[in-house]
Amino acid sequence: MITVADILALPAFEKVAPIAECPHAGTRPVHNVGILDCPPDYNKYSVYYPGEFIVTNLGFANNDERIAEESLCVMMSRGVSGIAIKTVYDPPITDRVRQTSEKCGVPVYLYTGAFHEMVAYQALDLIRRDEQESNRNEAIDALLAGQNNEQIRRKIYDIANITGATMNCFAVAPQANDESSLYAVLGMVQTLLKNAEEQHPEVDSTFACRFHECALALVSYGTQADGDNRVVDSIACDIANSGPLCCGIGSRFVLASSDLSIRQALACLTEARKRGVRKLSWQELGMEAFSLSAKTSPLFSRTCAMYRSMLQAYDNENNTDLMQTARALADALGDVKAAADSLFQHPNTIRYRLKKIKAVLNLEYASDKELVAFLILTFLA
Within 10 A of 222 (CB to CB), how many other CB atoms are there? Predict the structure, then answer.
């Protein structure tokens, strides 16, 4: 999906300044581009649609403040994604226009740079590229849907023309609350990958594309994974040091299992943005690696949910607190006193509830240690 931030990152723009504050303006989706070259006299701009990004120089207004004001306000009422005005004619911007921009949430920008026709050309080309990226997204989604090793190897080649013995993935996105253009991020990543191919003989081939709300970088190597991650670390550091970015780093896998590296990189990126760190590898996740693995396994996560729902259903019917007690025991690694203290209960109360939990989960013959291990797994996902 193309956003206003993607449009403003186009080479046609040199300097861009908003006329009013519009929160989250950069994240507004852009579906098309239109040129505003006439006043709204006869059709009230009915040929323009919500989600279009409008470019203009307001030359048709001939510096008439009233015409310029009416044109911009009517256009904003159409629900366009944004308006960019080239300052070649020193366009008059009134308080009413600023207030309408804030009220409608439609950002209006004054810019210097290429003529608005060039902006429209570059923006439409970007939208076309995004459609191609969306097709790749579908292919990668299919890759992650679960296939055999030969299908995975073939899919990777079809998507990225990747060959080699092993591959790892980097998932890159702006830091949380940063509205930078993902296509600008993608361009930076592509440049770094070219440098990596030149600097590291071990690198066989590289590929980068936009995948939903991040950029994916795939790097293949001519050798089997041998525990030497110096090249991976070097590329990750280059990416993380290239701007306000977060980078999730997947491990090296043989090409037939390369979907696992993509899964790891995406999970690490999510966790890196949550933690506010520049880069995070799968090896650095520790216990969280097991939790994230459990969450991405449909069978495992549904099994955990099933057992939690059994406890919750019993609580709902009997006004008990078995779910809360089970979670406290799992968090305390089976330490009854620690679990009791966290719940402000007597340890004997917790021991009594242990028997109830076993009965509800059909584990009457399990030892307390076995039950604790079971509960840790149940709450892992």
Answer: 13
